[in-house]
Amino acid sequence: MQLTSPRLRASLLAAASLGLVAAALPPPTPLGIGDPLFPHLGNPGYDVLSYDLSLTYKDNRTPLDAVTRIDARALTALDRINLDFTHGTVASAEVNGQPAAFESVGEDLVLTPESPVAPHTPLRIAVRHTSDPRGAADGGWVPTADGLAMANQADAAHRVFPCNDHPADKAYFTFRITAPEGLTAVANGVAGALPVRTAAGPTTWTYRTLHPMATELAQVSIGESAVLHRTGPHGLPLRDVVPAADRARLEPWLKKTHGHIAWMEERVGRYPFENYGVLIAQAQTGFELETQTLSLFESGLFAGDGYPEWYVEAVMVHELAHQWFGDSVTPRTWSDLWLNEGHATWYEALYADHLGKYSLERRMREAYERSDQWRASGGPPAAPKPAAPGQKIGLFRPVVYDGSALVLYALRQEIGAAAFDRIQRRWVTEHRDGVAGTADFVRLASQEAGRDMEPFLKPWLYGKTTPPMPGHPEWGGAKSV
């Protein structure tokens, strides 16, 4: 058969070329950056600068049609590019504008470009794929009563879109979400354009972040939602996303955010992002999540039965505190999780103390009594044990919450409140929009204390048993309970 179409000839020649390149390379394998807890998470060889995600939603039974565009920079020569991606079907891929061969290996999507990518050059990737909201509840899309939300922590963003799914590689995001008539789509950041509506048809919503973000903090909400705007301290835009039918009932809770932000700013400095708000989803998740600028809460927390008001407020402050500790300053590895959860728990406990409902000292003493048991079952704060296979949420154990807040309490007891407060402020200022790890925190603590704090902090962070608490000889030794 004679090929008469130039476009068809070019397409077949490109496919043949890709086949020859792939044949010359060894079989693709999953890669990772060697995270102690998630060794196959993240990928070497490039740095992502930005993501542009286009998602078309129909209903919770149908995979979303999606296009993920990635702007990156190659750090080394790349014959192949590994992306983290699973739970979706890939239709096509391009690297620097040219078709690329693709293959799924483990939880990696491996792209083979037509020609190797040179080091220190731009890397532009486009993947057309689906994003499946169905399946096991192992993170990623969270079905709600009226649509979807996202919960990507710790390793589930790649169940939604192809990415370099490790918090050490932060990037800017643009979201373009198309949803049927009657539904509202919201994402992290600020609206990038007015919603584009078609007559009696779907609407496309656009959002973009003004600060880099870890993939695990991405948030997209689609549902029958009301988006409520107000102003926070020093003119900070506040934006809440709630079920439209519940907006009046939830208003007393939403009004508290202004005061929560002012309280946090008194302790650690200005809020670090472009806006803030809460996303209240009609779902039973069993957790709340600090997705950047738009914290996810399950609606049952605000149902008015079972939880005292002071407790709900303290939980709201916990997720707000994460915007500084975990979102703006992101952990270098997942073993540094204590820096996220320990700090958020610290301010949660401090706020409950501020309300006069649950004293900080009482909570820390109770944590001290349980600390050895927590370390035995989950590992020490800065070296947590991996979660069991298929139970990644198991990483979030008591030792990374109250057990890690206890480390901060011990540090304050040792160096005094003034030096401790300086550490907190410097930490979120000097590492803003960046990544940092345990060694960075120990170094900063030493600078503010005026002495090497590693001999003091190392047993608290890595010891199998809990050291004596400074200033509290009456606490005795920590004991298993």
From TrEMBL:
Catalysed reactions, as listed in the record: Release of an N-terminal amino acid, Xaa-|-Yaa- from a peptide, amide or arylamide. Xaa is preferably Ala, but may be most amino acids including Pro (slow action). When a terminal hydrophobic residue is followed by a prolyl residue, the two may be released as an intact Xaa-Pro dipeptide
Gene3D superfamilies named among the record's database cross-references: Neutral Protease Domain 2, tricorn interacting facor f3 domain
Protein's UniProt name: Aminopeptidase N
EC number(s) given by UniProt: 3.4.11.2
An annotated Gene Ontology molecular function: zinc ion binding
Organism: Streptomyces globosus
Keyword set, alphabetical order: Aminopeptidase, Hydrolase, Metal-binding, Metalloprotease, Protease, Signal, Zinc
Residue ranges of domain Peptidase M1 membrane alanine aminopeptidase in the record: 257-460
InterPro entries for the chain: Aminopeptidase_N-like_N, Aminopeptidase_N-like_N_sf, Peptidase_M1, Peptidase_M1_aminopeptidases, Peptidase_M1_dom, Peptidase_M4/M1_CTD_sf
GO annotation, cellular component aspect: cytoplasm; extracellular space; membrane
Superkingdom classification of source: Bacteria
Coiled-coil portions: none
Family affiliation: Belongs to the peptidase M1 family.
Leader peptide range in chain numbering: 1-22
GO biological process terms, semicolon-separated: peptide catabolic process; proteolysis
Residue stretches making up the Aminopeptidase N-like N-terminal domain: 153-215
UniProt cofactor(s): Zn(2+)
